């Protein structure tokens, strides 16, 4: 591709509203442009990388028997009513009406659509297991779209869905998908970890998130120094037997004013659906991270205090402050004070749970009725542990370290939730109707692109790993007024392309300094410079990663690139 004939609008200055490196570099190197908050155009270079990421994803999905499909982004609200998510999804769901005032959704995900198709088209166990996937644009009205491609409101996702009659079959597909994800992210040059994650209350059980390690990651993971153990910090430990005594509860009455809320009020207040469970609140205060999460698990009718994490340097925070800091995924119940005293934090978590008055709502949505003394039994502080760096790993091997991660993918055993809601059944080998069980598997394709940049850059710009670079080689003519240089540049461009090398050819009439700076910014793995020694047939080669430059003949170059 000749640079004079393409669109690579580079920027010298760091754009004011771009806070993270990948966002800055993708804008500055001319890969993307923002159309409006959370919505981006992929320019020619960006689209090339996107294609490469998609190709890797497709190859690995196809290799495990995935069938590519393309489902509509525009979905009927009726389907979302059938699943119950029309009411439960909250403001993240993009809703719209047509000219007849019929309601629609711009799909944030496709469980409803895919389950309805399988319900209608798959009738026998003989057609199972079945895995379909698509690479498609998704829409989520994120509370805080930010960090460029990392959290958009319109973004590209690979979503796959598998359908089964038995749990064993689901387990096998889940494992195959997990392995395929590991291959995909390895091929893309990412430093990542698969971590145990929170399955929420959608009837799911096993789930892993794939985290690209990066300081800008919005998730924190706890991992072992000596084993494969790694968990989203939300999941690092589960406290099944957390049980405050009546005395504790009395104490709690003193520390904060009772603030009773119904589940619906809580849901409205949190701005997210109650089916996700009750998440009681946390803070990120300066560098320290505090998390107290409680969750109602509606399925099994019990409440768990899940995690109490490292506490340090905490200030009193209000709900508003907490919500502001944490975004839509978190919330708190009532005014909760947080102090340095860890016990108070635990107490407050219990308090928050105890304050929830539960019942059935108008739609018949079921949830827990909390009776603290009954549901929690005896509580001692020894039941609570605080995960800190340096702790023994839960599997007994090695110690715990914390790291920030970007969620680039997630695999999830959904179970029968959607099949039940939408009535997806097949006939088993006895001729009897059985409800399907299901898995879903997502990769944030556009987010992954940004994660690669987060991990592969230096002060001068992006440093694309070879396998994802938009072009293999950047060919630069130093002086475009010099006929010999131009002639050699043109000839090399032809010759390299004929040899199957993808070349970006800077044939523009720009100053050499500009060309070099932009070349570093764009970050192709190899730069070939045609300069003063053009008349001798000598070029200069430099790998983006290294400082060294090497002069060589055209023949040596051709041997090098092969
Ligand atoms: P997050 O926790 O970051 O909000 P999620 O858990 O809501 O992500 P999933 O529903 O698991 O996301 O979707 C599958 C994948 O899609 C995610 O693992 C992530 O890589 C990607 N993704 C989700 N939301 C966004 C977004 N707003 N912008 C870009 N990619 C996203
Ligand atoms: Mg999300
Ligand atoms: Mg997530
Ligand atoms: Mg996820």
TrEMBL record:
GO terms for cellular component: cytosol. GO terms for molecular function: aminoacyl-tRNA deacylase activity; ATP binding; catalytic activity, acting on a protein; proline-tRNA ligase activity; transferase activity. The keyword Nucleotide-binding applies. Its EC number is 6.1.1.15. Catalyzes the attachment of proline to tRNA(Pro) in a two-step reaction: proline is first activated by ATP to form Pro-AMP and then transferred to the acceptor end of tRNA(Pro). As ProRS can inadvertently accommodate and process non-cognate amino acids such as alanine and cysteine, to avoid such errors it has two additional distinct editing activities against alanine. One activity is designated as 'pretransfer' editing and involves the tRNA(Pro)-independent hydrolysis of activated Ala-AMP. Pfam families: HGTP_anticodon, tRNA-synt_2b, tRNA_edit. It catalyses: tRNA(Pro) + L-proline + ATP = L-prolyl-tRNA(Pro) + AMP + diphosphate. Homodimer. It comes from Halolactibacillus alkaliphilus. GO terms for biological process: prolyl-tRNA aminoacylation. Its main location: cytoplasm. This is Proline--tRNA ligase. It is found in: Cytoplasm. CDD domains: ProRS-INS, ProRS_anticodon_short, ProRS_core_prok. Consists of three domains: the N-terminal catalytic domain, the editing domain and the C-terminal anticodon-binding domain.
